[in-house]
Predict the structure.
Amino acid sequence: MHFADRLLAACEDKGAPVCAGIDPVFERLPRDLRGDAAGPRDAPHAVEAIGRFVRGVLEAVRPHVPCVKLQSVCFERYHWRGVKLYDDMVREARAMGLIVIGDAKRGDIGISAAHYAAGCLADDVDAPGPDALTVNGYLGGDSLEPLIDVAAAQGKGLFALVRTSNPGGDALQGLKLDDGRSVGEAVADLVAQQGEAHVGERGYSLLGAVVGATKPADAASLRRHMPRQIFLVPGFGAQGGGADDVRACFKADGTGAIITASRSVNYAFEKAPEADWKQAIEAAALDLRQQIRGILRR
Amino acid sequence: MHFADRLLAACEDKGAPVCAGIDPVFERLPRDLRGDAAGPRDAPHAVEAIGRFVRGVLEAVRPHVPCVKLQSVCFERYHWRGVKLYDDMVREARAMGLIVIGDAKRGDIGISAAHYAAGCLADDVDAPGPDALTVNGYLGGDSLEPLIDVAAAQGKGLFALVRTSNPGGDALQGLKLDDGRSVGEAVADLVAQQGEAHVGERGYSLLGAVVGATKPADAASLRRHMPRQIFLVPGFGAQGGGADDVRACFKADGTGAIITASRSVNYAFEKAPEADWKQAIEAAALDLRQQIRGILRR
């Protein structure tokens, strides 16, 4: 089944186009998981604790969200042990019926791009890849092609970085070209063009776009530049994005974007009795779903 | 010692500013390493063979080049086993006195950028990081800052992607801004600015730039935009870059660039009796050194 169709169906099934971002950082885990061991420099201990945490998050959010996003570097941080855990978590989350986005922001050219497609996206005998991968298209359309090929063959998707929610994102993405477009809009056009040949039944391409939720005017413009892209929208909640920013990412029919929240879900227990950390995370996932449904109803 | 000073000294010590790129692909290994096992889908076998190959390459090039570049995805391709080997190869190459560039092209924002700095660049109890890392600055200057901080603290370096040698690189990097600069030149200015506070005794920053060796006019312009950046120049040899392309990357005094060749060195044995694969690789490394010395003398 085409990735975009599958993602839209999953969003309808769970009642909202939301994604729980999972960015596990040892130092922020609940104390009962961290224990009193040597801390983050004791990699086996840290990886074990992170594994227990991520499993807890997956169980907590599973009934309420169609999709999770695993932040690759939180695992890569612990070298091979962390990478092994990442692959295990991708497998377990997929087995729970969740759509899994690997947030690895990879990008390279030629044969190296093909290797990233094989190693970070494709299903492999050693490890099932995620359902979708975030990628960086600065290197041009041909750097995306091998990834698109694997995605098309395996019913998977990609989200190319177009506009990011960090303060410094404007420094390049906000610059104006001589034809009036911003650099971000030029990347959007490139993404739209690369994704054109891979559109599913519902009208969306397997190649989506990452569009940070902090600039409503930008989002509206990018929506026009990329009519067939599903937007993966980080920055809601902890990074400062609000309802107006989010609404501009959707089409009038309420499709076309997935809102992802990481810290506000992962670390919801920091504002609650820590012993109930799973409950706090579940409540935050439910709250995210309700907020986005509310925004889409207005 | 400052990374740029260390790199320049190593180039002088070995007699030329060259780098052997190591991009090991199981299917292209000498037959006696591949054996007759199940092939690339048998990960433990493939990783073992790749390890033997990379050790052979390191021994072959070590007397002749100051620097090696390990292509991360060739290892990531094999999930945790490959990542473990990558870390081992970084350690062994550094122990041989080679300067090691991790070619991972990472880039993310905020805390994730800090995790990439910790996981892919910093020395760690579990794994020594490489001496330098390739990074993608599309997300803006603040995405580079945590990496620069780690590099400055540990005498390491970074090479930010500015201009790539693939056919599709122009699609974005070659676009013109309303101020007359190309997008690539704008990224160059961003890199120059970010690196300004971290210049060593010889006048170069720890933040260098990746500049593909396929467009001499571009290279000359980028050289002006980035007076304090060491250029890491791929694309010489197999990707079609030639002497004129290369010369434009250097300053008049012959400093300011490292020319890297991967396939023409790694796979030199494909045009020779395969049994002597190490010798063929050593001859190719020597040849690379001689070619670049020749270009710099003219």
Notes: The two ends of chain B are 32 Å apart (CA to CA). Residues 3 and 39 of chain B are 39 Å apart (CA to CA). Chain B touches chain A through 62 residues (CB under 8 Å).
